[in-house]
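Please decode residue identities from the backbone states below.
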């Protein structure tokens, strides 16, 4: 089986690490469930290639727009609100455990962080973390090495997660905001539907307020908060994101250099008050 691409394009563009490694592409590349060893080799490669820079690997995020035949997921009338991402992992623990074992084994070869997608409740995070603990116990008993410095974080991509971010921040090491889904779920606008046009507005103040809320709550608990959705590369919002205090913007390799230039040009202290006032108004509404 061919291993998926590693982080070389990221390094060419001098990225600070990988803020979102979509592990589902490993599963999409296969005709059957990828084995623990196959996944281990893929994660090990990207971690080794990144030479000690942080690599945030998101656990399986399928369902909704990403369907995989061999999962035999039942047809759903409303798949974006259905059985997807972490929900599948918690309902099918054998799949989740295989992935987590591969991830922890690979953690011995670089700086790994693990991130859970599509969180809506505290109990989901606790259950996912319990599985991490079980996997670590197993590996220890088997004498398989792994790093004990793996951070565990969650995506904030549902309004529930943003609203509960004060509670969720006590459970994890970081937040990464998935603005693609956060916009979809906040505005009740299907991200796949091109006919929605101006109704799908990622600059909507409701979305921006949720971003600020999650970031503020993360900082209150002393954890970092970034953005890993498309909005992170939107240069019109860079000043605002810096004013809010976001710690990381994760973008595709080709967007790294323009974004870095924009960040370097931005005088955060000057814009902070003005932009935060705008954020709390409805100026950004259409
Ligand atoms: C997001 O929802 O913003 C995100 C980064 O995840 P994906 O686009 O893969 O759903
Ligand atoms: Mg998403």
């Amino acid at each position: 089986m061919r291993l998926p691409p590693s982080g070389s394009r990221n390094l060419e563009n001098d990225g600070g690490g990988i803020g979102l490694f979509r592990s589902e592409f490993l599963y999409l590349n296969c005709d059957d469930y990828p084995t623990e060893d196959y996944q281990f080799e893929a994660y090990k490669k990207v971690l080794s290639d990144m030479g000690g820079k942080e690599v945030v690997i998101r656990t399986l995020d399928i369902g909704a727009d990403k369907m995989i035949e061999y999962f035999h997921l039942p047809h759903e009338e409303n798949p974006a609100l259905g059985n997807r991402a972490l929900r599948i992992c918690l309902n099918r623990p054998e799949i989740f455990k295989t992935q987590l074992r591969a991830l922890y084994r690979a953690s011995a070869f670089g700086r790994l962080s693990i991130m859970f997608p599509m969180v809506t409740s505290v109990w989901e995070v606790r259950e996912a973390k319990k599985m991490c603990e079980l996997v670590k116990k197993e590996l220890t008993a088997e004498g398989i090495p792994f790093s004990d410095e793996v951070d565990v974080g969650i995506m904030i991509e549902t309004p529930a997660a943003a609203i509960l971010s004060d509670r969720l921040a006590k459970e994890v090491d970081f937040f990464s905001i998935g603005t693609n889904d956060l916009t979809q779920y906040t505005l009740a606008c299907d991200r796949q539907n091109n006919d929605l046009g101006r109704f799908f507005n990622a600059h909507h103040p409701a979305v921006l307020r949720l971003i600020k809320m999650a970031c503020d709550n993360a900082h209150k608990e002393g954890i970092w908060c970034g953005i890993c959705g498309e909005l992170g590369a939107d240069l019109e919002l860079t000043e605002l994101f810096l004013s809010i205090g976001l710690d990381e913007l994760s973008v595709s390799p080709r967007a790294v250099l323009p974004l870095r230039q924009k960040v370097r040009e931005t005088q955060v202290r000057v814009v902070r008050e003005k932009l935060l006032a705008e954020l709390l108004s409805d100026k950004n509404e259409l």
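Observation: The two ends are 48 Å apart (CA to CA).
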